[in-house]
Design goal:
alpha/beta; eight-stranded parallel β-sheet; 8 strands
């Protein structure tokens, strides 16, 4: 298990960047991981986890939360609008607010359920046509529209293009967040989280470096 190593590397990256110890939240990405791998990480004291699929999360986390208190569960995968009700019920944070149709579904569920998951707007920093997310120049209007619905996004999220240098994408996301007064930055994964921390990441999403390579069989 690589959890201890990742925690050491996060602490070292915080120190190099002049950041306060513990200022970065590690999200252990547990999607499609074998149950025993996730249990081992829970037993080791990790309490913040990320899932990509609502149905998969519903099938395992209610039971695990009953056994392991204070779990913080983050939705980090694409969220279908018809899963908004279940997502608000289950997740403490949603990192993939990426379109108005989803915002319009989330707003009434948040109001009705009296829950307030942290919301991150996903920004398509690479302008990739196949990838979800708001384009950088669309963010001001999108953010205003979300607020008009009563939503209170607290951060931004990005996934840099595969194979590209992540640094300019992290810097763009940081600049956008600063421009709009958003305190949280969800950026950085197993291969680049230290770079993300140097650029101000508050949340890093690490899966394979903790659990090992996933099997989708």
């Amino acid at each position: 298990m690589g959890l201890d190593d990742i925690k050491r590397r996060i602490a070292a990256a915080e120190e190099r960047a002049g950041r306060a110890p513990g200022s970065v939240t590690l999200i252990a990405v547990s999607k499609v991981q074998p149950q025993d791998h996730v249990i081992a990480v829970l037993e080791a004291g990790q309490r913040v986890f990320g899932e990509n699929y609502v149905q998969e999360a519903l099938g395992k986390w209610p039971d695990w939360r009953a056994r392991y208190p204070n779990v913080d569960l983050h939705m980090i995968g694409p969220l279908q609008s018809n899963k908004a009700k279940a997502a608000v019920e289950l997740f403490d944070a949603i990192h993939t607010l990426d379109r108005m149709s989803l915002a319009r579904k989330l707003a009434p569920q948040i109001e009705q359920q009296g829950r307030s998951p942290q919301l991150f707007i996903q920004v398509n920093t690479g302008d990739e046509p196949q990838k979800a997310g708001i384009l950088a120049d669309e963010l001001p209007v999108f953010l205003a529209s979300c607020r008009d619905l009563g939503l209170s996004p607290q951060g931004l999220m990005c996934i840099p293009p595969e194979g590209a240098d992540p640094l300019p994408h992290f810097r763009l996301l940081g600049a956008l967040a600063a421009d709009h007064g958003l305190p949280n930055l969800s950026m950085g994964m197993s291969a680049d989280f230290e770079t993300a921390i140097a650029e101000g990441a508050t949340h890093v999403r690490v899966g394979s470096a903790i659990f090992g390579t996933r099997s989708y069989a």
